[in-house]
Design brief:
By secondary structure, the chain is α/β, with parallel strands linked by helices. Helices cover 53% and strands 17% of the residues. Strand 4, helix 5 and strand 5 form a beta-alpha-beta unit.
């Protein structure tokens, strides 16, 4: 499974890229605004660090506006993927961009039907938001299971990108279910290294060795 980082922070990306754990990056207007940086400049900076897909999200909500922004983003670097929302105009834009050879990530997906529409329109990445479904007492990972199964029935090129990841269990479940990608905040990646029994084991080994050396 590929790991994308869900961030626009360069230091976070560099930290995990050095470990070979960053296959791509997803950004959105909220993450860019949090960094307080120029959008174009930051996307280009990320693309210099990461060779894999870097998602840049359109701000327009209408078809023509999405196309204008998407065509601009696609010129910034060859690994830019344009994020469009799961709306009628978003899917219409996805189909046009697919025909033009521009890679698209359809975001804010919450149903199998939405994922199917995105796949048929030529999306390279489909982003179901598991955490936001969990927030309203629905089962986000059940949706991932259903989308993975649905896509496996056919020959669509779309990959399932698990988004709105809130904790390490989301990553583990996504991997078990066969999702292609999980986009993970740095705070969640940090936690994936940890287990109290690991810490306890290291402490015990060091204590035993210290006694032996005496």
């Amino acid at each position: 499974m590929q790991f994308f980082m869900d961030t626009a922070n360069l230091e976070e990306i560099k930290k995990y890229a050095a470990l070979g754990l960053v296959d791509g990056v997803t950004t959105n207007p909220t993450l860019i605004a949090k960094e307080g940086v120029d959008f174009e400049k930051r996307i280009k900076e990320i693309c210099e660090i990461v060779a894999g897909p870097v998602s840049a999200e359109v701000l327009a909500t209408d078809y023509e506006g999405m196309l204008k922004e998407a065509r601009t983003y696609a010129k910034w670097a060859p690994n830019v993927y344009v994020k469009v929302p799961m709306t009628f105009d978003g899917i219409r834009a996805c189909k046009t961009l697919f025909d033009e050879g521009i890679h698209v990530n359809v975001t804010l997906v919450f149903t199998v039907n939405q994922a199917l529409l995105a796949a048929k329109a030529g999306a390279k990445l489909i982003s179901p938001f598991v955490g936001r479904l969990d927030d309203i007492s629905e089962d986000g990972m059940a949706l991932i299971s259903d989308i993975v199964e649905m896509l496996s029935n056919y020959r669509y090129e779309a990959q399932v990108l698990v988004a709105s990841v809130r904790h390490p269990r989301h990553v583990a479940d996504a991997a078990i279910l066969g999702a292609d990608v999980a986009t993970i905040p740095a705070a969640v990646l940090d936690k994936m290294f940890l287990h109290p029994l690991t810490d306890k084991g290291i402490a015990q080994f060091l204590a035993d060795w210290a006694k032996f050396k005496k």
